[in-house]
């Protein structure tokens, strides 16, 4: 399931996401070229003015312009040069504006496409993937990594084009103006290149460590905010503050190590560039003054010297940015790799190439020799159960017996390790996931409500449903009454995770959602949290209403919920240990009869070996939870 590391992720980024916006990139690069060429003009014009107008060392000329067209007096020549400098600045400003807009647009559009696409791929991955990854880590990919790419596509691409044009342009100009002084001015460039190369080698691993510790910090924060109620009720604020502080300190240390390297690098680079500048200044100045330096002859006009001084100064910036561009590039490459690795992760549960839509005729559900484990150990062992179309199956059993796992396989959150789950004879692995999940309505133990109105939550699976349909569904789920009494009725906003509603209310909204979706097969996982007797009755009544017409699988913690089911299976440790109707199972006097007796409060009548077994289990659970590790993990949940 884990993908191979993406090779050449930056190439792939440009091919996959850059292609649609290439015109913005092309316009940005072109504008960058024109703007930078315009930036190079003023020093050249200044040199020309010094030599030809101020010092009158040679005749005034402009390359490519006939002499007859040029002004004759020094003052008008000077004004012309001034006008050309102004024109350069104007051109530079207009094209910098174009460059900024176009490159930013390119980066922002790629960022948008990439984020939406990555999220979409992520949400289609299977449950096993989400079991193994922390939400904070995934959030960090969708936010940080996508942002890193945007930074490179904007700042990095711009910096690289500036570097190319400025350095390339300056090198050519300097060589043409005076090859000897150009060699002096460019002497530091190989050092800068080597120094940067070394820097990247050292910085890269430290940056990877920074990113990993940031993902850990995000995971910790995300986990804690999700469990904030438990933190409060366990008065664990100080403990959690310390844990966040440890994760944050770790991030600080890793980041500080990276910052120390980068803050040393840039000033050091400036030292090299500064040495180059001073050498150029001295050599050029002495050549102008005395025609030779340390025995090396040179001839230079004052104007050329002035141009050199300006251009070498201009050279310092792009060259010292070289490291930063490499830095941005390295970060972006690592981010692109993580994003593409995520994109390449194949869900184990996905549509087969020849998957066909599920055809429901009777709605018969069949588990045929199903065994399954979540990786380690086996949770379901050789489960054989058939639910004829239109009938109700009740699943009961002690906690952890595997009841929820049975229905997770029915909505294909996972595939069985052996055996098959079928609906109307079609193996679920051969049908499309969309058709399966539209056919099976699932109300889970802890229903999730999205932030939004009650109406939006009920109409989640059918956003086009009319007001009347939504209300009908709510009526059938016994939710209409309480929804009407909410402050804004169906337009009441339910908070994140629907915290403003009680467990029983959330479950009824969730049932209404399933009613509206009108599935062929209905799966109901009864809430384990206690609801009052009235709510329990209301829920049971709406379930009974729904089950009358369709195949239903009900997981019951209160056995009264499944008392009237056509068949009840009793699961224990992943095996079906008993099956039959309520009366048949009571008559067997086995596990079901004992569980029934416990719920009816007739504990004294239970067989001693059952009581001993339950007590043994309780002791086991207590021993497991004793150590520090156990306590730690429980807060992690
Ligand atoms: N996503 C998962 N990853 C790993 N193990 C899991 C996962 N979900 C459940 N399990 C394990 O599988 C076993 C069966 O869990 P399951 O939730 O199916 O039991 P259950 O009978 O529904 O329990 P309860 O009555 O408490 O809801 C348990 O041991 C549980 O720890």
From TrEMBL:
Subcellular location: Membrane
Superkingdom field: Archaea
The keyword Transmembrane is annotated on this UniProt entry: yes
Swiss-Prot/TrEMBL keywords: ATP-binding, Membrane, Nucleotide-binding, Transmembrane, Transmembrane helix, Transport
Lipid bilayer topology: Multi-pass membrane protein
MF (Gene Ontology): ABC-type transporter activity; ATP binding; ATP hydrolysis activity
Pfam families: ABC_membrane, ABC_tran
Domain ABC transmembrane type-1, first and last residues per copy: 26-331
Any one GO CC term of the record: membrane
PANTHER family listed in its UniProt record: ATP-BINDING CASSETTE SUB-FAMILY B, ATP-BINDING CASSETTE SUB-FAMILY B MEMBER 6
UniProt name for this protein: ATP-binding cassette, subfamily B
């Amino acid at each position: 399931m884990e993908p191979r590391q993406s090779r050449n992720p930056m190439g792939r980024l440009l091919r996959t996401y850059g292609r649609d916006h290439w015109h913005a990139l092309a316009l940005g690069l072109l504008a960058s070229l024109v703007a930078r060429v315009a930036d190079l003009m003023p020093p050249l014009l200044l040199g020309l003015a010094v030599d030809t107008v101020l010092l009158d060392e040679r005749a005034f000329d402009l390359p490519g312009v006939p002499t007859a067209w040029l002004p004759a007096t020094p003052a008008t020549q000077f004004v012309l040069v001034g006008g050309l400098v102004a024109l350069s600045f104007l051109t530079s400003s207009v094209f910098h504006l174009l460059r900024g807009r176009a490159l930013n647009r390119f980066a922002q559009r790629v960022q948008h496409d990439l984020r939406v696409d990555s999220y979409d791929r992520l949400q289609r991955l299977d449950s096993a993937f989400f079991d193994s990854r922390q939400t904070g880590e995934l959030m960090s990919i969708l936010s940080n990594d996508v942002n890193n790419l945007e930074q490179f596509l904007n700042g990095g691409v711009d910096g690289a084009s500036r570097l190319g044009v400025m350095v390339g342009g300056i090198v050519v100009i300097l060589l043409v103006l005076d090859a000897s002084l150009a060699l002096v001015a460019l002497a530091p460039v190989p050092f800068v290149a080597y120094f940067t190369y070394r820097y990247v080698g050292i910085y890269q691993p430290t940056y990877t460590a920074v990113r990993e510790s940031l993902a850990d910090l995000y995971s910790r924060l995300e986990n804690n905010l999700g469990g904030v109620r438990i933190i409060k009720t366990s008065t664990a604020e100080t403990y959690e503050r310390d844990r966040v502080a440890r994760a944050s300190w770790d991030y600080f240390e890793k980041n500080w190590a990276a910052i120390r390297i980068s803050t040393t690098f840039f000033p050091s680079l400036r030292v090299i560039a500064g040495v180059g500048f001073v050498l150029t200044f001295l050599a050029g100045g002495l050549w102008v003054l005395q025609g030779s330096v340390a025995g090396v002859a040179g001839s230079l006009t004052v104007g050329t010297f002035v141009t050199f001084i300006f251009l070498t100064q201009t050279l310092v910036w792009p060259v010292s940015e070289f490291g930063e561009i490499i830095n941005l590039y390295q970060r972006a490459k690592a981010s692109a790799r993580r994003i593409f690795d995520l994109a390449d992760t194949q869900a184990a549960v996905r549509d087969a190439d020849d998957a066909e839509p599920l055809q429901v005729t009777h709605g018969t559900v069949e588990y045929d020799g199903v065994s399954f484990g979540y990786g380690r150990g086996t949770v379901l062992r050789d489960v054989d159960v058939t639910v004829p179309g239109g009938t109700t199956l009740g699943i009961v059993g002690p906690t952890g017996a595997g009841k929820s796992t049975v229905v997770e396989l029915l909505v294909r959150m996972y595939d069985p390790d052996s055996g098959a789950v079928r609906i109307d004879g079609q193996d679920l692995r051969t049908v499309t996931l969309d058709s399966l999940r539209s056919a099976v309505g699932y109300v889970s133990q802890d229903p999730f409500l999205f932030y939004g109105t009650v109406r939006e939550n009920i109409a989640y699976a059918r956003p086009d449903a009319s007001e009347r349909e939504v209300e009908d569904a709510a009526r059938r789920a016994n939710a209409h009454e309480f929804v009407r009494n909410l402050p804004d009725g169906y337009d009441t906003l339910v908070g994140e995770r629907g915290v403003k509603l009680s467990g029983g209310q959330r479950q009824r909204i969730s049932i209404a959602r399933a009613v509206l979706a009108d599935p062929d097969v209905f799966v109901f996982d009864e809430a384990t949290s206690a609801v009052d007797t009235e709510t329990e009755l209301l829920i049971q009544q709406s379930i009974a209403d729904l089950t009358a017409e369709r195949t239903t699988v009900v997981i019951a913690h209160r056995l009264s919920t499944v008392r009237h089911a056509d068949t009840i299976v009793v699961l224990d440790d992943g095996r079906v240990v008993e099956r039959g109707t309520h009366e048949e199972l009571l008559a067997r006097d086995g596990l079901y009869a004992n569980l029934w007796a416990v719920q009816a409060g007739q504990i004294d009548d239970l067989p001693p070996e059952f009581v001993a077994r339950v007590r043994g289990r309780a002791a086991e659970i207590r021993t497991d939870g004793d150590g520090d590790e156990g306590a730690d993990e429980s807060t992690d949940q």
